[in-house]
Design brief:
The protein is about 60% helix and about 0% strand. With about 100 residues, the protein is an all-alpha fold.
Length: about 100
């Protein structure tokens, strides 16, 4: 028993990490505008630190194992990359026009 939790092994993949991967929309949205483009690297660092902190705290709490966190990150990144690919496809086909704010 760790931290008052009984590890049951039925917690894979980490749902918090899957949803946490969508914090990568933050640097994506920052990079879309000319005024905020210079903060893209900082936004990426913040997003990756958030995901790592989220995974670490879930393991410390005893809710997930490292394998759960890793699988959640993989699944979350697949969903994020699919959404990003659709966004690019929609922009290319002019279904979703990209605005350039000055």
């Amino acid at each position: 028993m760790a931290n008052g939790f009984e590890p049951s092994g039925g917690s894979s993949p980490g749902g918090h990490i899957i949803s946490g991967c969508f914090s990568l929309l933050f640097p994506l949205s920052v990079s879309r505008f000319e005024r905020t483009k210079k903060f893209t690297i900082l936004a990426c660092i913040i997003s990756f630190l958030y995901i790592a902190f989220l995974g670490f705290t879930r393991m410390i709490r005893g809710a997930h194992f490292l394998s759960d966190i890793a699988l959640g990150a993989i699944v979350g990144m697949i969903f994020f990359l699919a959404a990003f690919g659709l966004l690019k496809l929609f922009e290319k086909k002019c279904i979703l026009p990209a605005r350039k704010l000055q």
